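Our consortium's second objective concerns turning raw sequence data into structural hypotheses that experimental partners can test. To show how far this objective has progressed, the report includes one record in full. It was chosen at random from the queue rather than selected for favorable results. The single chain below, 482 residues long, was entered without modification.
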Amino acid sequence: MEKRNSILVLGCLLLSGGIFAQEVDSIPDTQVEPTDMLVQADTGVKKDTTNTFKKIKLDGIAAVVGDYVILESDIEKTLIDLRSQGASVEDITKCGLLGKLMEDRLYAHQAVQDSILVSDDEVNMTGDRQLQSLVQQIGSIEKVLKYYKKEDETSFRQELYKINKLRMLSERMQQNIIKEIEITPEEVRQFFNKIPESERPVFGAEMEIAQIVKQPKPTDKEIQEVVDKLNKIKADVEDNDASFSVKAILYSQGPSKSQGGLIKSVTKESALVKEFKDVAFSLKEGEVSEPFETMFGYHIMYIEKIRGQEVDVRHILLQPEISQEALDRAKTELDSIRQHILDGKYTFAQGALNFSDEEETKFDNGQLRNPTNFDSRFELTKMDPKLYNQVRNLKDNEISYPILEQDERGGGPSFKLLKVTNRYDEHVAEFSKDYMKIRELALTEKQYTAIKKWMDDHIEDTYISVNESRKNCDFANNWIKE
């Protein structure tokens, strides 16, 4: 039960006071240090208006892990936050929550010892994004502060900083533990064979989906208008000392707009398009690029910081306007392709190869890949809701009519045809049929085993204290060190 409770609450709180456990002031860029004195518990007295003394209960300490203190109120707040987020807390105990909070702090404590860095810029940028998102959802900064019962924005940002610093240190430590763990096909086979037939997992109904995409093209005039606008912004930055980040917030159409166009720690291995990385590593620090094109549109880039093989960049992305005429042409072309496939002139796969504008799928018969594991199958209960709604009513061998879609990555509008190429009913796991899913399960178990061993070793070597009132908890880990 304790193990399940720990998994249930893993990573579910980002903005609440519940995950913040009275950790201490931060040393810039690298670590957190303990306060000079731990919080006193149950020792305060207060004089009332009748001149009699009344004992009041201050916040008690539930546990200490390395340099981190966990208060009883942290457990209560975490439970409240879980309920407010709609999570089921029926099987979650206070002992389970305490165990999870202790795990997070052990990871963070050891990250500091191992010099695993989380920069102040990263933490603050995360807090900025969260605060902007909250303002968008709730309506104003005043309403956000009222909702979270904070007196002012500064104190709220400070709490966000501490929450995010702890979380990011914990995540980096966990990633470091499992980063080199791999699994062989033979280990996957052994893992599967150890599972009794009566206990083998049941995989839900799945489908495979293919698509043909037409991307409407802008005219030369529309492209030139965008290039001219980027050149004007570039000149304003270089000649008038205008702020590139402010320009990005005002004009960029890319997903990094709210961060002033910032993309940190770009390397030659980063998951960015080649054209973008080529420009990033061709400029000097402080230099602004000429306008350049990628599949997402037209950019200018500013080099903010070079650190060896890593570069912090800011960029502004603009997309040429797509005329209604161009949209209509793309839709008409897809209508024609659809009819030709139905008439048997060529197959859907041949249509994708010869006519699709999407490089990622056209050479793979138009096959979509599941972004979670790059498998071709999509489990219906876990599929992206938008994609599910687009294909759920398609029958076997049926092809959708052209569907208009806006690329969330910033690539502009497009039309697509969709077809369900295979369906798989709910079934008990089979090794050859479900190898990729079984491999994921086997790898997860191997990673969990490595993390459990790491946890056992470092609990032994770290200062840990659990309050007497919590020592009867049935922890999954040996926090009591018995």
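The partners drew two points from this record. The chain has a mean pLDDT of 85. The first strand starts at residue 26 and ends at 27. Both points have been shared with the crystallography group to help prioritize constructs.
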